[in-house]
């Protein structure tokens, strides 16, 4: 097994773990944690492909990963703000209990 | 494949599993921090120093703290008595397993076609800075705008209070 395949398998496992967390947990914050794990798995793929690419000095995969990290930070801020707002409104973060978008 | 890779992969995947499986939400956030730190070490193992340290600063330093704040502000640290899984958790688990089998199958099928270059790329932080200020300056500016908008939006969404009696 080449090193790149190892990193890709780790990233795939991480993505599957994040997906399972996002799909099976009830707490909205745990769903956001799962989404963060999935984004990080994608970043690991970018960095691994950059490292084993024929032209790493072009920095393409590295730049994509850096921009992706920044976008994920913005996503986390807005997502957690939404969770806090929903909790203030519905007094719960249980996604099975939140079934209306209109107050 | 070095021993360091297996250790870091085990650390990362263990942290991620704990973050998804633990019952107490605060413990989940702490396990998430371990997973992020393991990922940063994996980035360093891949000779991506800048991305690794950015990962530590942004994820371990900021996102994990943000998650802990959100948990404490929403009283999510109280473990619910009727389980932590949603009603259709089995379907979700099945989908995750199916996605992993497809990706893993694709990776294992293409092992021979994957590149096998071992010489470490010599990329310094200066190169990254020059690229950010040269070829990638427009995405950088758009990203700055996005971060500003996201910060303002998050503050407005979280501070909004409904008027009148509830």
List keywords for this structure.
heterodimer; A: 103 residues; mainly alpha; 75% helix; 0% strand; B: Four Helix Bundle (Hemerythrin (Met), subunit A); 2 domains; 6 helices; globular
Write structural notes for this entry:
The complex is a heterodimer of chains A (103) and B (166). Chain A has 103 residues and is mainly alpha-helical. Chain A has helices at 3-24, 28-51, 60-90. Chain A contains three helices and no strands. Chain B is mostly helical. Chain B has two domains: 1-79, Four Helix Bundle (Hemerythrin (Met), subunit A); 124-166, no CATH class. Chain B is 71% helix and 0% strand. In chain B, α2 runs antiparallel to α3 (49-73). Chain B is globular and about 55 Å long. The termini of chain B are far apart. The mean pLDDT of chain B is 87. The interface between A and B is large, with 75 and 85 residues.
User: How many DSSP H or I helices of chain B?
Assistant: 6
* Largest pleated sheet of chain B: none
Q: Give the helices and strands of chain B as they follow along the chain.
A: HHHHHH
Q: How many individual helices of chain A?
A: 3
Write down the overall mean pLDDT of chain A. 88
CATH topology tier name of chain A: Helix Hairpins
